[in-house]
Amino acid sequence: MKYFTLVFVVFLLVLSSVSLWADEAKPLILVMGEDSYPYQFVDEQGEPSGVLVDMWKEWSKQTATPVLFVSRHWSDTLDQLSHGDADLHIGMAQTQSRSEKFAFAQALTHVSTYLYLHKDLPQRLTFEELGPYQVGIVSGSSHETELLKLSSKIRFKRYKNRHDLLVGVLHGEIKVFAGMQGYLRDKKINKQVISFFPLSHRILIKQVPLRPALNKSDSQLMQQVNAGFAAIDKGRLDAIEERWIGIKRQQNGLSIATAINLEPFISLGGDGMPHGLYVDIWSLWSDKTGIPISFMTSDMNQSLDQVKSGKADVHIGYPESDKFKTGLLRSQLLYRVKSRLHSYGKPIDSLQNLQGSRVGAVPTAPYLAQLKQALPDVELKLYDSVAAMIQAAKEGHISSFVASSSWTHHYLVLQGAWSEFYPFPELEFITDIFVLTSPHNVGLSNRIKAGFELIETQELAEIERKWILDSQARIFQSRLEPIPLSADQQQYLQDLKSIRVGYLKDWKPMEFTSEDDMFSGINRDVVDVITKQLGVSVEAVAFDEWQSLINALIEGDVDIAGSVAETADRKKALLFSDAYWPSPWSLATPIEREAIFNVQQLAGQRLAIVEGYQLVNQLMGADYGIELVLVADPHSGLAAVKEGKADAFVDKAINLASTLKHGDYSQLKMSVLADFSEQHSHFGIHPSLAQFVPLMNLAIKNLDQAKRQAIYQHWIQPVAVAPRGSDTVKWCVSVIIVLLILIAIIFMCRLLLTKERLKRTQLESQLSKMTHYDQMTGFANRSLLDDRLKQALLLHSREQATFGVLFIDIGGLKSVNKQMGHDVGDKLLKLVAEEMSTCIRRSDTLARFGSNEFVVILNKSKDLDLVCQVADTIITNLSKSFDCDDTKLNVRASIGIAMFPADGDNVVELLKSADKLMYRAKQSGGNCYKSS
Questions:
Q1: Count of other CB atoms within 10 angstroms of residue 567
Q2: Does the pTM exceed 0.70?
Q3: What mean pLDDT is predicted for residues 80-90?
């Protein structure tokens, strides 16, 4: 009995130990979302991954608590937790409705949520203006609650998960969707989404803390969770976040270390900011990723040390090689610099002519070994800089030198010596320029690579053309041509032979039938660019009305048609190319009416529009309160406005401008609709040509900005039409009669005019000058400035061009008035105004805006750099002393620069932007300018 009792007790102890071990080994069930990359998702191997997953793994190690991750669709994760099928949710946003169900632990990380807007929508939409658009969201996400707080008018289209949402985005089901910051795991989808929904268009909803959630009854588990994460070293959590996202939590962007004085790659501009090829490439990267960047300038060695020490995140670009290793990580190939032989005075006929001569090079060139191998019979002379080699070549110390073609070309052009030097293109060396990062931050390296994968070669080629003068030194352009085609694609194009293109007979300048009965216009030139690259011919089919053309395209009577908007309804029957031409919408209204710039101003009015335009459905689908008047063609629409049958007519800006210019519509005026100013044209394609679409898109990518500009200028130039046949006689007779009448009138007037008429003319002239010109300086006043600004807006909107506005404050005048009197101050102000007028063209406008403030309008300014050059010239010229009443006086100029349309698309916005930037310049001490 004694032994039996002992055995029984041992059995109970073993049983309880096993039970206790089982309880201790039971893992916590953590439910998570399956596609919220990079925070919580399931990877290609089916394993849970992401920022929050790795943080919970750290917690598991810290607390010695096993965990089991269970992934579900987002709405199902909430159900799993509320039903008690999971112990914890690894991280979600805390909302009022969720707080009623769950308890929330301390935040593990933060994520910014955004509304992503389609590129065809205006950039400056507010939450209240989202009423006409459905916002795509994942069902059960916190986006709905947060957006309704911002506007009760927002309507939603709900998707089961993030994948379904993105499919809807790419299929054109929605124009707006809500999502987290970061980038998508699928690089191809990520690139497609950003191409239609650029990050520059997104609107911040809120920065949201992500917190673990659990049932309210489990307070002990809450304490365990918070205590466990509090015990983890903060550096370990930051490293996890940095590994996945690439940027530390506390940072607001990337700091980029760069050397300067490496034109045209990197240099300091007149505004004191870095400019150049590399800077523009990085700015494009920033636009694509939505990550702000800032530059830290120094010399080359210091810029490398800044990255090594952690003061900077990235080196802008360095010629890292096996010979010259920095110890940093090569994160991305940024550019490839071409270096060539250059000779002074005469060209090099062949390399044999260099035997026995001295050739210059720099000691840090990575191609020195290749150079020695290519020129074994020459003496290499090493110099500290390219400038020193150029001087040595001029003085005859060396016969030639090897240097970067782009740098040398740029330097010699600035020195006015390019014609004295001759490049030898047959000997070329390539130097790879790499983006460098710390080898310890792989996450940042991956983020940088992902950003560069979003950039199209075409975009890089356009930047390169801006900075690299020598076309033979460019590298991106060579990647665009020819179009790489597989054997199957080549066979398909050979079998296709020709395509039928439908077009409108009278829709100038986009497309029309010319006098010799040929398909002409912008669309014809674009079609030619595409078909010449693909080797197919064109069969043009003309139509009188837009609706007839669309119907023929749907029925397959024609294969493609240009200027077709991509809509959800049309996508059911047609395929579409990538966008190839900007096509903003404009209004024609009676000239006496106030200008209309957005659709809301048309509420309660009659709007004429061509039947079949996709804009009809958009206007009818939204509650704008507009009465649509459908017309057959643009001439009918303009006639309806002239005859009072409609209050306005809407058409594509380029076509409307051409029609108004060449027709009898002097009583009508044009304004651009801001709501639809960023739309683009596509080719509509019949589904039978599905194989042709990707080939067409490849050709469209080669339609760069330079080609578009050439096409635009060709068709926008006014064409003089000479009278023909019998009309010539009538025309000549009419001219002679008119001239005779005019001569008679002039003769009579000269007899009848009196001194009173002369006095009245003089008074009217003086009155006009008083009304439009400043009495002190003689330049335009605010009244004339407003008129000139309105004219500039209208002109540049029609021609899709840019212009600059300078807001100038003249400092130092108040002290002159106080110390020397207002007479001297007025003389000084007049001298200053006259000096500024010498810095601008006759076609520009200088106006006095206030007592010591001026505004300059720089018409048809190609880019910001040219405007900055004018501002720099004004500051330089006003920095000199002015001789006023035998006294040397000085002033300070503070200038704010605004560009149309980037800083404003109306008079008020432009002046406000320039005024704010002027005050920033003034606060910086004056004698400088600021731009956005």
A1: 15
A2: no
A3: 92
